[in-house]
From TrEMBL:
Keywords: Glycosidase, Hydrolase. InterPro entries: Aldolase_TIM, GH. Its EC number is 3.2.1.22. It comes from Armatimonas rosea. This is Alpha-galactosidase. One of its GO terms (molecular function) is alpha-galactosidase activity.
Length: 504
């Protein structure tokens, strides 16, 4: 495994490599950094020859985009947060990771001769100014598999070791979400009808379903953000709507984009793009706290907070590569890393929400673990194109499954149950999610529900309301969209649709 000290160490400032610009000490796996220079990157390298034919798997910066996979050695491949190395001949697996809640954006590289850890300690796209403080940038966690332990079992145990204190729902979470058939064209009347349908399809009285009001309830259009002090004309009484849902034995949920708000002054805004708020400005955190606390006070029991990674960095996870954001800009508080800024935002949301469940979407799971009960671990599925659901949903369910109940409850996103998606495909996706042990959310268009769909939904919600063992993707080392799954005491083995290209 890794020695306590790397074989090579490099330090990069805003002007390039300068190994004398920082003092880097590793003790008990903790990487401690101090410097009077604006620091950007610290790179640690261990010589560790790899066996020929090894397979390598990493995580993603935020959501997966259908791109998570076991693959042979690719020296330039960026492996955010952790790297798993599996030797097919011996069956042994090794894990190299950093503990959740790190103060840097950490990624690994694996090549034939060794392994490299890259710690991005930048402040936005500029160097962080640590001043007199010593930064604990990361805590390195290496682990090896036990004899006969499968790669999946090891990955789950490894994720458990990376997250010392996950925050989990008290009961399984399931229910409805209106996005994938209404796409923001909603009102109080549609919410009541859709929530009532979900309740009618959910037999459990011990664990009531949630219904999440997605984007479309606030005055701005689409996903264009706040102010969030009140609903629009179609939502005149949001507290009353939450109370009505609870009276119908439905748990109210709601969506928010915390860092997009047209009301605050210019001084609160991000240097990179003035459209968005800077989470290191104290007044911004106060506003976010007020907005989140208001939704909780209105009676919403699950808050889905979205877009914060994109709003801060300007990039989606699939476009980040080795750099989560562009160079040349900085946060208002130059003394914190980007990772610390995001974690501070998440901590503010957590504090404001109280006991209300949080689900992070387009959030960094490795920083939200221990703060969020649920995490959307993949990009959007669809109520319009099956191929998007197959690519995004099935992939993230399989490859983020080791994080389920070790980091948080893993949400692979909705079943978009509409007439536009073939029922034979949606039936399989619904069945797999219901038997997977993970949260199940369905966007159920009433016009697409006949007797067969109704019976399948009742069966799915009955399962999803109960505690279940996590499903295991049996062919995940050879298939990016696994079709063979072990669900409890039986094996689920069905074809989840072809990779048929969707138009548009």
């Amino acid at each position: 495994m890794l020695s306590s000290s790397p074989d090579q160490l490099a330090v990069f400032t805003e002007t390039g490599r300068n190994d004398s610009a920082a003092e880097v000490v590793i003790t008990d796996g903790r990487v401690l950094i101090s410097s009077s220079e604006p620091l950007c990157w610290v790179v640690l390298r261990w010589s560790l020859p790899m066996t020929e034919g090894v397979q390598v798997l990493g995580d993603a910066w935020e959501r997966g985009y259908g791109d998570l996979e076991w693959r042979g050695i690719s020296a330039e491949r960026v492996l955010p947060w952790y790297a798993l190395v599996h030797e097919p001949k011996s069956g042994a697996t090794r894990g190299f990771g950093v503990q959740t809640g790190a103060a840097s954006l950490a990624s690994w590289r694996v090549d034939a001769a060794g392994i490299t850890l890259v710690l991005d300690v930048r402040n936005g796209g500029a160097g962080v100014r640590l001043g007199e403080r010593t930064l604990e940038a990361a805590r390195i966690i290496p682990l090896e598999s036990e004899p006969g332990e499968s790669a999946f079992a090891f990955a789950t145990r490894f994720c458990r070791a990376l997250c010392p204190a996950p925050r989990l729902p008290k009961q399984p979470v399931y229910g409805g979400n209106d996005w994938y058939f209404r796409y923001g064209n909603i009102s109080e009347e549609t919410v009541k009808g859709d929530a009532a349908l979900i309740r009618a399809l959910s037999p459990s009285r011990e664990n009531a379903p949630f219904f999440v009001i997605d984007a479309g309830w606030f005055p701005a259009s689409g996903c264009d953000g706040g102010p969030y002090e009140q609903g629009n004309a179609k939502f005149p009484d949001l507290p009353g709507l939450a109370a009505w849902m609870k009276s119908e034995d439905v748990r109210p949920g709601i969506w928010i984009r915390p860092l997009l708000n047209s009301a605050p002054p210019e001084s609160w805004r991000l240097m990179r793009d003035r459209t968005y708020l800077d989470p290191t400005v104290p007044e911004v955190l106060d506003l976010v706290h007020t907005d989140i606390a208001r939704l909780a006070d209105w009676g919403y029991q699950l808050l889905k907070h979205d877009f914060t990674t994109f709003d801060v960095t300007g990039r989606w996870g699939f476009g980040m590569g080795g750099s989560v954001t562009a160079d040349g800009w900085h946060l208002a508080n130059r003394g914190v890393t980007t990772a610390e800024a995001l974690t501070g935002l998440y901590q503010t949301i957590r504090q404001a929400a109280g006991d209300t469940y949080l689900i992070g979407c387009n959030t960094v799971g490795h920083l939200g673990a221990g703060l969020f009960e649920l995490q959307r671990t993949g990009d959007d599925t669809s109520g319009r194109h099956w191929e998007r659901t197959r690519k995004m949903g099935v992939n993230t369910l399989a490859f983020r499954m080791p994080q389920h109940n070790t980091f948080f409850a893993v949400d692979a996103d909705c079943v978009g149950l509409t007439s536009a998606v073939p029922w034979e495909h949606n039936r399989q996706w619904l069945d797999l999610l219901a038997k997977s042990g993970t949260p199940l959310f369905v966007s159920a268009d009433p016009d697409a529900i006949g007797p067969e769909q109704r019976a399948a939904l009742v069966e799915a919600f009955t399962r999803a309301a109960m505690e279940q063992a996590a499903a295991e993707p049996l062919d995940w080392q050879s298939n990016t969209s696994p079709t063979r799954w072990s669900c409890g005491s039986y094996t689920w083995d069905e074809f989840l649709g072809s990779a048929f290209p969707c138009p548009g």
